[in-house]
Amino acid sequence: MKAYSGREATEEAGVALVGVHSEYPRFGEERALGGGTYKGGGAAKHKPNIGYRLGRRKALFEKRKRISDYALVMGMFGIIIMVIENELSSAGVYSKASIYSQALKTLISMSTVILLGLIVAYHALEIQLFMIDNCADDWRIAMTWQRIAQIGLELSICAVHPIPGQYTFTWTTKLANKGGVIGVEVVPYDVTLSLPMFLRLYLICRVMLLHSKLFTDASSRSIGALNRINFNTRFVLKTLMTICPGTVLLVFMVSLWIIASWTLRQCERFHDEDHANLLNSMWLTAITFLCVGYGDIVPNTYCGRGITLTCGMVGAGCTALLVAVVSRKLELTRAEKHVHNFMMDTQLTKRLKNAAANVLRETWLIYKHTRRVKRVDPGRVRTHQRKFLLAIYALRKVKMDQRKLMDNANTITDMAKTQNTVYEIVSDMSSRQDSIEERLTSLEEKLSTLQEQVNSLPDMMARCLQQCWERAEQRRNFLHPDAAAVPTPPAANISPYARTMPPTHGWPASPTTARAHSAPESAGPAPRPPLPS
């Protein structure tokens, strides 16, 4: 029992914290082989590898993209049918109780049901992708409160639509255009149920995200992951605003203008005849959007006032963005700035030279009319002095303009260029330092070799002295064979550092001395040779 418990603890230590159910079938199968019982042990599944997960993830990505496209098509279809039905009923072509109105509302209901199913399928694919990315086996792990709230909000937004049937309510409001008269009208519920259908347009942002090259390209996603950038709808919109800001603003402003005008007309047409005309509603929306507000046409209902208030707030933001885009378009590019700075620098250099020449000329003329003439003309001297001061002021002004031009030229791009130049200089210095280090290394190697040779020099000198001694011995033995019995001093006694030779083994001064040294002790003194007669 203790052994089994230890094995169980070892197995559980290797189980992943998230994918807890992927290993338990195999564990149960081992328990069944050991004599235990486990239901479904034969249905054990192997954990998928990374290749299977990547293939499955790619397929889910494509499927999610198609489902998002279908959801946008169903949402736009419902909005278009809703607009057609309201326009036909407001124009008096048919009433709300006619069969044609019921048929169009039925189409809207069917498209809404399909849209809700597509939204549920989309979030189901999101959960599957979450499970694959995090190696989870239970879908309930992905059901956070944020995801549940998002799914509920999307379903509630897309579920609102005009239902088939004729349902009305009494709408009471105070008419501002008619002196504050209280107006009471019977209005169908289709008005309040049709306007929220425009909230389905949020699906356009989702489709833009899923079809963006930044989101679908694997290399872009890898670079973004390395730089900790999340590819979401906000990032895609920022990219579009950077690439084509004018087009994005134009499309957004025109779409908002048309939608706000139509919804304002639907809210106000039952109480005021002026708003029954779509052009008047478009005029009011445009004036409110531009934050002008002439006051010739005003909304009466709280619905219309809320729409105009929203248009005013969005219009203020769009105006600020429009100013930023226009200022960016009017700004010089980097190449144009460099050309402009170069031309201004050239002109200022010419003006500086002319101003300096004028200063020298007036200096010479003042000297000429004061020192080189017999009679000084004060009027002419004052004229040249005045021109001299003007030339000095012009020279100072040109120098100041040059200084301002240099200060304005120090932009971020020029700083980046300066940084690149500094980097090149530092790289050159680093390469030179590396070459100097290599030379010092080779010099150290040569010094080490020289030190080794100097250390081996005493041994070489000892060998040379030994060879010389042996040659001298051979020569002496050859010339004086009787002195061959003198012993040869060993090489150890010959030291290159000794100042004198060993006293016991000196060099013979002459052959006679050598013979005297080599003679035995028992022999008497050698006979002196006879003198010549």
TrEMBL record:
Alphabetical keyword list: Calmodulin-binding, Coiled coil, Ion channel, Ion transport, Membrane, Transmembrane, Transmembrane helix, Transport
Name of this chain's protein: Calmodulin-binding domain-containing protein
Membrane-spanning segments: 67-84, 104-125, 235-264, 276-295, 307-327
Entry-linked InterPro entries: CaM-bd_dom (IPR004178), CaM-bd_dom_sf (IPR036122), K_chnl_Ca-activ_SK (IPR015449), K_chnl_dom (IPR013099)
Main localization, broad class: membrane
Residue stretches in coiled coil: 426-453
Domain Calmodulin-binding: from-to ranges: 345-421
Gene3D superfamilies assigned: 1.10.287.70
GO cellular component: membrane
Subcellular location: Membrane
Bilayer topology annotation: Multi-pass membrane protein
A GO MF term: calmodulin binding
